[in-house]
Structure formats: C-alpha cells, structure tokens
Here is the input.
Amino acid sequence: MIAYSRVFVNDLIKKANADEIERFVAGAVIVKDDSALILQRARADFMGGLYEIPSGGVEEGESIEDALARETLEETGLKISGILYYVSSFDYLSSKGKKTRQFNFLVKVDDGGVKLSEEHEKFAFVKQDDLDAYNITPDVKEAIESALNRR
Here is the structure.
C-alpha cells in the first residue's frame, strides 16, 4: 500500500488513460478492529449475490476521491473522514462491456451504523481468515487482505 496523495492519484489516472481504460471505479476498504466491511450485491443486479467492498463509478467531472466519498455514503450510509492509503487496483469489463479500472483505498469513516442501499442485500464485517466463506472475487479479496495486513 502507498500513503494517499493527490499527486499519486493523478499518476494512477495518467497510467489508466495510457492503458486505454474507459471507466473508473472507486472502492473503499473499511476496517473495524480486525475485520473489513463487505456488501452482498442484490441478486437481481449485475453480478448479483457477489460480495464486494463499497464502490462505484466516477461520474463525468468528478474526482476519484469525491466518487469514493459519494459511493460509500450512498451504499453504506457511512461518511468518509479520511483516505489513508491507496491499496490496489484491478481491471474488469463493466456490464456495458467497458474496460474498467477499480482503484481501492483504505479509508477511515465516522462512527455510525451501516445502512444499505437497494444495491445490496446484506453486509458483514469479516476477518481475513473468514474471507473464503464468502462469494468474493480474488481481486477484492486481495485488496481486503492488503488493507488488513497494513493495519
């Protein structure tokens, strides 16, 4: 993991553009004690039933940091109070077939309970040793493990 800085994020964006990435997604790794927050996607949605970290697309004219805060609040009801580290990124094809890169950050959130949006059915705070019990992609699992090992 790399300590967060706006300059570093600008470099990530330049590299993604050079790699012809068409869409950016911001992902938040939220850690409480020694567990990370995961959300189960609504079964009727794209990749339904899969567990993920709070994440979502960067809108036109929006910074990655602003998208990170907006999506985290929309999906969990939690407000980001700080971005601590850049954790990782991974690429995938979106539901519309666009080359997408998800940038993941370890974040600090204000105290409060999780309030899910309609996009998700369940949530859990999961210890690293228990991640294999959940339907989670290797890329998301790696991001979570990296963040938990950094703490």
About this structure: The two ends are 11 Å apart (CA to CA). DSSP finds three helices and eight strands in the chain. The chain has one domain: 2-150. The CA atoms of residues 12 and 146 lie 18 Å apart.
